[in-house]
Design a protein that fits this description.
Blueprint lengths: L2 H18 L7 H22 L11 H27 L2
Length: 89
C-alpha cells in the first residue's frame, strides 16, 4: 500500500475512532483526522512488528482493525496529554 492509501485509511480510521470514543477533544475535527492518519501508520507498524502481518491490501479487515486500533491509542494519548492541560486552566 502506498502513502496515499495510508492517508485515506487514516482519515477514515480517525473518523471511526472519533465515533467509537465520543467526547469533546481539544483541537477539533482537523486534529482528530490528523491523529487518525498517525494512528493508521502506528497500526501498520504494530501489525508488521509485533504480529508479523504483512499489511498490503487496502480492503483487508486486519488492515482496518489495526488502523482503527492505532487511531484509538493515539486519541487516548492525546486526550491524556492535551486534555488534562486544558482542564487545569
Amino acid at each position: 500500500m502506498g502513502v496515499i492509501s495510508w492517508i485515506v485509511l487514516g482519515l477514515v480510521a480517525g473518523v471511526i475512532a472519533k465515533l467509537l470514543m465520543p467526547g469533546k477533544d481539544p483541537g477539533g475535527c482537523i486534529i482528530t483526522v490528523l491523529l487518525g492518519i498517525a494512528g493508521a501508520f502506528l497500526g501498520g507498524w504494530v501489525g508488521k512488528t509485533l504480529f508479523h502481518v504483512q499489511l498490503g491490501r487496502f480492503f483487508d479487515l486486519r488492515t482496518w482493525g489495526l488502523a482503527i486500533l492505532g487511531s484509538l491509542i493515539i486519541l487516548v494519548g492525546y486526550r491524556l496529554l492535551i486534555g488534562g492541560r486544558d482542564r487545569d486552566r
